[in-house]
């Protein structure tokens, strides 16, 4: 509940109220007719859908002004309206004597905020605030778990969020953004997550997921999709004649079932009028160590945490708290909006999130015969986002201008424990501190022009540009081990460097009547990458002939400045085959992602000791994707009973990527004379095989007011092979016979001249062409496990009480659950699971809500599908929490 609105894409102006608009709204329930009016007229409509229940409209067709059209739409209904401001209109239901009935806060039945998804001819998903509140997130990844085609490589100890769309993630393949501001922070880890963002769920209003390559804003360098986290606006709490408002939330775990869920809350306050508005917000979230589920633990297999080797210790580990998982997050939000003359708006936004986390591993204690958690590091993250937004939407079909200038700075201060190597081994590294910082500057500019060709044809042209620059600034006080002194280029796995991306794009959409939609887009991306790197290897000297030729230490230095560009087209077509409730669509597109700073320049020892080494690859190629999908949308109102809604979206997708970049853990260096002897030497390589991610997504939503259900499921198909050149930079050598030379040789007491064989180093082209397969380390090693969710709920007491249950399911990908070895670095260890959640929400008054959530009611032992099993942090067990919310 609370003041809300139906927001159209094109805000109205006073002149627009009298301008003629083409309406096509069939007879239907009045509340849904008003929704259609808002979208077609381009205004915000504020109303209480409960007060409009049972009323119908005869519809509206033809050309009318917004004010005249609304009067005709409402004719015969006991409802009056009043325009307030340039683009807002409020509705009130009146009684038989003409008096206005008391209006509660706006209440949007079901998930109608997301109905547009089932009428959009492309693969897009939306997560509403209502969905988020039904399962209060401990980790930001929890918000995405019910979305078809979306995964998260979640690490329960790390609050950073990494979004995977249809099997694709990392290094900007997916544009993760907050209000359009790209979140490109990256610290190279164990290859499960290379690129994370930090967002406070308390400030989220909705999340939109665009899947596949994109022709419009945000698509530069993207081959997986766009994940947009939209934060609250002042208008969410304001309305006609309402100049201030806000929201207070306070939650906590309940009793012993609280399970490490401590205080979570936020405060938002907004005030404003026709001149402008201000939004202020603060949030604080506290979590402690928690217990994982213990039921159906056999699903975890025999190899996770040494079950077969230490069965008693394993049982103790399963029933003990997951250690070192506590965290504190504090966030602040400020938005200042100014309504300028001539339908212009300027808004300043600032959001900062500070959170801590810990790294830990489990070790076996021979004395106690138990596993214990040992902290290996701790981090403090600070993410700051600032932007200046400008919009200009005059009464002109050719102009709908939006511009954004933004700056994002994310910093990690990390303490690292020293390694366990002995000092005598010369591999000992003492405890040290790191700082990793990524600064992103961005500029966005776009305009939308609309052309109407008669009554049946419309052309929409969206075009613009975007530019962003990432600067990576690592710093460390780490003292290298003695054995590292011969490696002068050890910067660590997150190197210094800079990448600039610039893009021009245009997308044209043609609509004929209500049955045909065709769109075509073209974007040009260009990037520039700068940095310095190098490797130390051993090579035979070139141009030297001699006997007993020896390899010498050789430094290869690369001062890189790469620049390249590429055109990427997209095309789509959608038709309604004779019925207005069905739409069939297909889309095709090309994408292009140039390599990142880390992939090209990284070097160093990943574990601070031992023989493992990470090497740079200045010859890494850009990835090229080919996306294709075929989908069907179904959306029908009054399907089974008057006023209900049914929406469905089913899509088959096929993403093929050439030159896919992956971590090769068995790469040989220049100078090698034999192959495959360097396990533990790693570098990013381009896959010589085509990498393919395909599958089917299902999303269904039915809402009859008093009861509702939602279903989502993702089925992934196939697997991939990863092959690369064994000598990843070439440079193979062998010694060749260079003939003989006469040398003096002492024989007894005499010296005589004898022929001596000499050699010289030659290039070994056959070694350079040798290919090896299967030496991959990373999240792409296996397809994500299939997973889905089913939610059913009912509403009581005039729909103020909402209770429901949810099933989260995955069939798992447990190829190595019972057959674990180290033939391959990565293992498929995502067990199958069925997790049941219960929730209830009761609006005791129009302003006061009490919500309860029982997560994992059956206490299932599981890892989230695609979760980071290397971290050995199982998901939460049975957890009961409550949230009190007050809106004013």
UniProtKB/TrEMBL annotation:
It comes from Pseudomonas wadenswilerensis. Residues 43-94 form the Secretin/TonB short N-terminal domain. GO terms for cellular component: cell outer membrane. Belongs to the TonB-dependent receptor family. GO terms for biological process: siderophore transmembrane transport. It is a multi-pass membrane protein. Its main location: membrane. One of its GO terms (molecular function) is siderophore uptake transmembrane transporter activity. It is found in: Cell outer membrane. Keywords: Cell outer membrane, Ion transport, Iron, Iron transport, Membrane, Receptor, Signal, TonB box, Transmembrane, Transmembrane beta strand, Transport. SUPFAM superfamilies: Porins. This is TonB-dependent heme receptor A.
């Amino acid at each position: 509940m609370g003041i809300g609105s139906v927001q159209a894409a094109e805000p109205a102006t006073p002149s627009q109220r009298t301008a003629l608009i083409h309406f096509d709204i069939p007879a239907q329930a009045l509340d849904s007719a008003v929704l259609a009016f808002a979208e077609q007229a381009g205004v915000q409509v504020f109303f209480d859908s409960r007060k409009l229940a049972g009323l119908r409209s005869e519809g509206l067709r033809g050309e009318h002004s917004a004010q005249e059209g609304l009067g005709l739409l409402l004719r015969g209904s006991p409802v009056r309206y009043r325009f307030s401001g340039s683009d807002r209109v409020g509705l009130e239901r009146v009684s038989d004597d003409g008096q206005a009935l008391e209006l509660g806060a706006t209440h949007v039945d079901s998930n109608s905020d997301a109905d547009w998804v089932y009428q959009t001819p492309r693969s897009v998903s939306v997560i509403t605030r209502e969905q988020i509140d039904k399962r209060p997130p401990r980790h930001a990844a929890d918000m995405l778990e019910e979305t078809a085609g979306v995964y998260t490589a979640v690490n329960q100890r790390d609050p950073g969020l990494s979004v995977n769309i249809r099997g694709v993630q990392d290094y900007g393949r997916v544009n993760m953004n907050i209000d359009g501001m790209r979140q490109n922070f990256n610290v190279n880890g164990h290859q499960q997550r290379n690129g994370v963002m930090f967002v406070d769920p308390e400030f989220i209003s909705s999340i939109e997921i665009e899947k596949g390559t994109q022709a419009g804003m945000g698509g530069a360098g993207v081959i997986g999709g766009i994940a947009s986290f939209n934060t609250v606006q002042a208008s969410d709490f304001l309305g006609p004649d309402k100049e201030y408002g806000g929201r207070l939330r306070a939650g906590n775990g309940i009793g012993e079932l609280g399970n490490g869920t401590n205080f979570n809350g936020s405060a938002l306050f907004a005030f404003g009028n026709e001149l402008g508005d201000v939004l202020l917000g603060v949030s604080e979230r506290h979590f402690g160590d928690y217990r994982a589920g213990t039921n159906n633990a056999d699903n975890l297999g025999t190899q996770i945490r040494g079950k077969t080797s230490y069965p008693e210790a394993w049982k103790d580990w399963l029933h003990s708290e997951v250690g070192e998982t506590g965290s504190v997050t504090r966030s602040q939000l400020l938005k200042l909006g100014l309504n300028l003359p001539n339908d212009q708006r300027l808004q300043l936004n600032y959001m900062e999130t500070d959170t801590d986390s810990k790294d830990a591993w489990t070790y076996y204690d021979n004395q106690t015969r138990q596993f214990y958690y040992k902290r290996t590091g701790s981090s403090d993250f600070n993410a700051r986002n600032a932007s200046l937004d400008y919009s200009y939407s005059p009464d002109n079909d050719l102009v709908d201008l939006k511009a954004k200038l933004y700056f994002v700075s994310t910093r990690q201060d990390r303490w690292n424990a020293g390694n366990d190597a002995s000092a005598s081994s010369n591999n000992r590294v003492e405890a040290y501190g790191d700082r990793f910082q990524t600064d992103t500057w961005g500029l966005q500019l776009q305009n939308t022009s609309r052309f109407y060709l008669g009554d049946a044809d419309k052309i929409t042209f969206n075009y613009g540009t975007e530019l962003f620059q990432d600067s990576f600034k690592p710093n460390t006080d780490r003292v290298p081990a003695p054995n590292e002194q011969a490696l002068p280029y050890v910067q660590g796995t997150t190197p210094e460097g800079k990448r600039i991306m610039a893009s021009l794009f245009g997308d044209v959409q043609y609509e004929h009547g209500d049955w045909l939609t065709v769109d075509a887009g073209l974007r040009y991306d260009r990037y520039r990458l700068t940095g310095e790197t190098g490797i130390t290897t051993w090579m035979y000297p070139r141009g030297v002939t001699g006997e007993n030729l020896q390899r010498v230490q050789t430094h290869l230095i690369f001062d890189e400045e790469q620049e390249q560009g590429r055109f990427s087209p997209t095309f789509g077509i959608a038709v309604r085959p004779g019925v207005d409730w069905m739409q069939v669509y297909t889309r095709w597109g090309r994408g292009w992602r140039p390599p990142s700073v880390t992939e090209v320049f990284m070097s160093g020892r990943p574990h601070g000791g031992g023989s493992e080494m990470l090497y740079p690859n200045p010859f890494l190629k850009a990835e090229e994707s080919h996306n294709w999908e075929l989908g069907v949308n179904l959306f029908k109102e009054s399907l089974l009973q008057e006023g209900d809604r049914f929406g469905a979206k089913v899509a088959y997708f096929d993403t093929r990527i050439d030159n896919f970049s992956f971590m090769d853990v068995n790469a040989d260096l220049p100078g090698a004379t034999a192959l495959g002897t360097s396990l533990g030497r790693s570098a990013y390589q381009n896959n010589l095989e085509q990498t393919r991610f395909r599958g089917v997504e299902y999303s269904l939503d039915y809402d009859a007011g008093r009861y509702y259900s939602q279903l989502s499921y993702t089925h992934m198909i196939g697997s991939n092979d990863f092959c690369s050149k064994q000598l990843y930079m070439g440079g193979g050598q062998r010694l060749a016979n260079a003939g003989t030379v006469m040398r003096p040789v002492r024989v007894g007491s005499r010296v005589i001249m004898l022929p001596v064989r000499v050699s010289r180093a030659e290039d070994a082209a056959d070694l350079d062409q040798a290919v090896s397969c299967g030496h991959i380390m990373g999240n792409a090693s296996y397809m994500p496990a299939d997973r889905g969710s089913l939610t059913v709920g009912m509403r009581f007491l005039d729909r103020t009480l909402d209770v429901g249950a949810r099933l989260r399911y995955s069939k798992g990908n447990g190829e190595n659950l019972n057959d674990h070895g180290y033939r391959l670095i990565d293992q498929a260890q995502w067990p199958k699971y069925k997790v049941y959640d219960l929730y209830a929400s009761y609006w005791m008054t129009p302003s006061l809500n009490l919500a309860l959530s029982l997560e994992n009611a059956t206490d299932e032992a599981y890892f989230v599908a695609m979760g980071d099993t290397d971290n050995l942090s199982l998901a939460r067990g049975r957890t009961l929490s409550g949230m009190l919310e007050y809106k004013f």
